């Protein structure tokens, strides 16, 4: 306490005596320097930038260079790192074949022939692996969808399957796992078809190396997860929702659907909205809204189909990862067993098929 009081007294003494408590610091070896750039530097940089913008516009964007043009490129190391990033074990020959496109072999053969070198390349393209991988991919996706969406008709299963196996979806997955830097092909940037073919070949190579079980989990983790955040009802557009609903109710022994206007607003304006309720045997089933009565009826029928198929907006989240551990055997069994088609759909058949 005494030391603190002494320090305060010294601070007050220095303050009133206008004496700084800090010691002066003398600059040593300080040389004043003026930054100077020639007058031509700024105009030159502006002109170079202008030319680069014009070149990028003519080429459709900035030029992209393949990773193989870098000095530190090591294809063997990249192949090893790729399999470890995915956490899968590949046969080295199968993986290299899956990443080799036929156009690359043709280009290298022509290049060697032009310089007079006998071309005897020991490369295998991914044509056969791609075809096999497409079949496996389709089978794995169908098995998952039929095991999870047990009460939907086969038409909706087919619509979700077509979405997951479409070129844009598979290209997105292939780009995100880094296939663009590893594929050996003649075109760069690689085309969509090249990405899709290489990814399918990867699936087949994994099935050959580690078995179909690992390939099935691989497809579930990378491809089927593209359904997350998607409204599965938007992927399937039935031609006649009211007619489909009427046929289902008739097969179940119920009365035809009856539409009743519940409420409306702004009917005399261009922003009018109508709410229609759907009833059967005086029991409320669903309701829909639209800018006209016909649209509202169709939306109400769609909502009723969602309830029958258990694909409402409040449906449970799709299972992935560890949640699929207990139903992998069920998924494998349903890969070749289609759901009930819409023309034969009835709740009793669906429940008996589930159990």
How would you summarize the topology of this molecule?
Elements: H1 2-16, H2 41-58, H3 75-86, H4 92-98, H5 102-114, H6 127-148, H7 154-164, H8 167-176, H9 192-210, H10 212-222, H11 241-251, E1 258-265, E2 273-280, E3 283-290, H12 293-309, H13 328-333, H14 347-354
Antiparallel strand pairs: 1-2, 2-3
Helix pairs in contact: 4-9, 6-7, 6-9, 6-10, 8-9, 9-10
> Secondary-structure element sequence?
HHHHHHHHHHHEEEHHH
The DSSP helix count reads 14
Tertiary shape: extended
Strand order in space, largest sheet: 1-2-3
The helix fraction, in percent, is 40-55%
Low-confidence stretches: none
Give the end-to-end Cα distance, rounded to a whole number of Å. Answer: 83 Å
Largest sheet: 3 strands, antiparallel
Structural class: mainly alpha
The overall pLDDT average reads 86
The percent range for strand residues is: 5-15%
Q: Over the alpha carbons, how many angstroms does the gyration radius reach?
A: 34 Å
* Number of strand elements: 3
Q: What would your notes on this structure say?
A:
The chain is mainly alpha-helical and 355 residues long. Helix content is 51%, strand content 7%. The protein has helices at residues 2-16, 41-58, 75-86, 92-98, 102-114, 127-148, 154-164, 167-176, 192-210, 212-222, 241-251, 293-309, 328-333, 347-354, and strands at residues 258-265, 273-280, 283-290. The N and C termini lie far apart (83 Å).
